[in-house]
Design brief:
It is a single chain. With 445 residues, this protein is α+β, with helices and mostly antiparallel strands. It folds into 2 domains: 5-242 and 356-442, Zn peptidases (Aminopeptidase, 3-Layer(aba) Sandwich), CATH 3.40.630.10; 252-353, 2-Layer Sandwich (Alpha-Beta Plaits), CATH 3.30.70.360. It is built from 10 helices and 19 strands. The strands form 4 sheets. The chain has a 9-stranded mixed β-sheet with strand order 1-2-3-9-4-10-17-11-16, covered by helices on one side. It has a 4-stranded antiparallel β-sheet with strand order 5-8-19-18. Helix 1 (31-38) packs across helix 3 and helix 3 packs across helix 10 (422-442). The chain is globular and about 85 Å long.
Length: 445
C-alpha cells in the first residue's frame, strides 16, 4: 500500500449533482486538448517499487481525473487505497423506456501509468499538421525517425494530424489517449442527454498496467459492471478480443565459487551454465523472428556471479498447445544441463501471468459484436487483431468481467517513436458514444 497519510483510507466522494449534468457551462475540451494536457503528467510506473501504485505520479493524475469527473457531474467517485479511480455516469433512460431495466452496466477503462522502458518526464508533444507522407524526423533527436516502411499504418492518416513527442521521451498515448477518449466521450454524453441514450456507465482509471501488477488490486465487485472495454488499443478500427497466454520462466543456477587461480576441477561457474541455457534456446522461437499468431521464448532479465546466476524469460503463445511446447523446450534444456553439470543446482520456476481472454469472450459474442457495430457506425470497417502482449482486460475477463480492447489511434508504444493519429483518437471517442447506444438498442430487440 502506498505510504501516504491521505491515501491510508479509502476516499469516497458521493457527488449529488444530477442537475449539473445538463449544465451548459461545463468544460468543453477536445480529445486532443485533453491528451496534450495529460501527457505533461509523469506517470511512468516502476517495476522495482515496493509501493502500490508504484509511483506517486499516478496518484497525482488520479486526483486530477477525479476532479474532472466531479466537474462533469458523475456520481460515486472513488479513489481507493491503491489509487484506482472509479465513477458512475447514471443512466439517462426515462422510467418508461423499454431498456430501462434491461440494459447491462457498461464499463470503460484505461490505465494511468506509462511504460517504464522510456522516460515519460517532460514530454514535449509535437503536432505534425496534415501529414503528407514520408518519414517523420523527430526534432528533439534527429536519430529518432518514424519510418514509413516500419509504420505501414501511417498511410491511413494521409492529410490528417499526427502527434509525436520531440524524440527525447515517449509520447504517452499508451494509455493517456484512452483516458482522453473516455473523458471526452463522457463530456459529450453529459452535454447532450437528448442526443445520446445510455444505461449506467461505470468508469475506471487503473494503475500499474505496464508492469502487470495493478489489475490485481482491482475490485470487480465494487466496479459492478456487467461488461467492459479497455480503451487501450492501436490502429483505427481495431478490436482485440484475444491476447497471448503468458507465463514467466525463471532458471536459477547455484555453482561453486573459488579463487580462479586455483579453480581447476573445482569451480562451477554459474554464469557459464546460464549462458549455455540461453544459447540452446531455439533462435526461431524469439520475438525477433515471430509475428502474428506465433509465440516466443524471450530471455529479458539476466543477473549473476560465479556462484549464483538467474535468467528470466517470457513464454508467450496464443494456444495452449504452443505454450506447452515452450515449457517443454525450457524443461528439456534444464534437464540437459543438470546432466552435464551434476555439481550445480539448477532450479526452474514457471509462473502464470494471464491467459488468452478469447477463451471467455467467445462465450458471450455480444461483447465483441456490439463493439464492431459501434465502429461501423463511426464509418469504419472493424477488424479483429490479437494483442501480442497483455492488457488489463485479459485478467478481468478471466475473473468474470468480459473486457475486449478498443483502439485509440496510437502506435509504436513503449518507444520514443510513439505516435498518435488525431483521426484515430477522434474516432475512438465516436466509437465509445456509439457503443453505449448500441447496448441500449440491442437490449430491447
Amino acid at each position: 500500500m502506498f505510504k501516504l497519510t491521505y491515501y491510508s483510507t479509502i476516499i469516497i466522494l458521493h457527488i449529488l449533482m444530477m442537475n449539473k449534468a445538463a449544465s451548459t457551462d461545463l468544460p468543453n475540451e477536445t480529445a486532443v486538448e485533453r491528451f496534450l494536457r495529460y501527457v505533461q503528467i509523469d506517470t511512468q510506473s516502476d517495476p522495482n517499487s515496493e509501493t502500490v501504485p508504484s509511483t506517486e505520479g499516478q496518484l497525482k493524475f488520479g486526483k486530477i481525473l477525479a476532479g474532472e469527473l466531479e466537474e462533469l457531474g458523475l456520481l460515486d467517485i472513488v479513489i481507493d487505497e491503491y489509487g484506482i479511480v472509479m465513477a458512475t455516469l447514471p443512466s439517462n433512460l426515462p422510467a418508461g423506456h423499454p431498456a430501462r431495466n434491461k440494459v447491462p452496466v457498461v464499463g470503460l477503462l484505461a490505465h494511468m501509468d506509462t511504460s517504464p522502458d522510456v522516460s515519460g518526464k517532460y514530454v514535449k508533444p509535437v503536432i505534425h499538421r496534415k501529414y503528407q507522407g514520408g518519414d517523420i524526423v523527430l526534432p528533439g533527436d534527429e536519430s529518432q525517425t518514424i519510418k514509413v516502411d516500419e509504420n505501414p499504418t501511417l498511410k491511413l492518416y494521409h492529410g490528417t494530424d499526427i502527434i509525436t513527442s520531440d524524440g527525447t521521451t515517449l509520447l504517452g498515448a499508451d494509455d493517456k489517449a484512452g483516458i482522453a477518449a473516455i473523458m471526452t466521450a463522457l463530456q459529450t454524453l453529459v452535454r447532450n442527454p437528448d442526443r445520446y441514450k445510455h444505461g449506467d456507465v461505470r468508469i475506471s482509471f487503473t494503475i500499474d498496467e505496464e508492469i502487470g501488477t495493478g489489475i490485481g488490486y482491482f475490485d470487480i465487485e465494487r466496479f459492478a459492471a456487467d461488461v467492459a472495454y479497455t480503451i487501450d488499443g492501436s490502429t483505427v478500427g481495431e478490436i482485440s478480443n484475444e491476447t497471448f497466454n503468458a507465463k514467466t520462466a525463471i532458471v536459477r543456477v547455484t555453482g561453486r565459487d573459488i579463487h580462479p587461480g586455483y579453480a581447476k576441477d573445482i569451480m562451477i561457474n554459474s554464469i557459464r551454465i546460464v549462458s549455455a541455457f540461453i544459447d540452446r534456446l531455439p533462435p526461431d522461437v524469439s520475438p525477433e523472428r515471430t509475428a502474428d499468431r506465433e509465440g516466443y521464448i524471450h530471455p529479458n532479465q539476466l543477473s549473476g556471479t560465479t556462484h549464483t546466476s538467474e535468467v528470466r524469460m517470457l513464454l508467450r503463445d496464443f494456444y495452449d498447445e504452443g505454450m506447452e511446447e515452450k515449457e517443454r523446450i525450457v524443461r528439456s534444456i534444464v534437464e540437459e544441463l543438470r546432466n552435464e553439470y551434476p555439481g550445480a543446482i539448477i532450479e526452474l520456476e514457471i509462473q502464470e501471468s494471464y491467459r488468452n481472454m478469447r477463451y471467455w469472450l467467445d462465450d458471450d459474442p455480444r461483447v465483441t459484436d456490439y463493439a464492431k457495430e459501434a465502429i461501423r457506425r463511426a464509418g469504419l470497417e472493424p477488424h479483429l487483431k490479437p494483442i501480442r502482449g497483455g492488457t488489463d482486460g485479459a485478467r478481468l475477463t478471466e475473473r468474470g468481467l468480459p473486457t475486449p480492447n478498443i483502439f485509440t489511434g496510437g502506435e509504436n508504444f513503449h518507444s520514443r517513436q510513439e505516435w498518435l493519429a488525431v483521426k484515430g483518437l477522434e474516432k475512438s471517442v465516436e466509437t465509445i458514444l456509439n457503443l453505449v447506444e448500441v447496448w441500449v438498442e440491442k437490449s430491447v430487440e
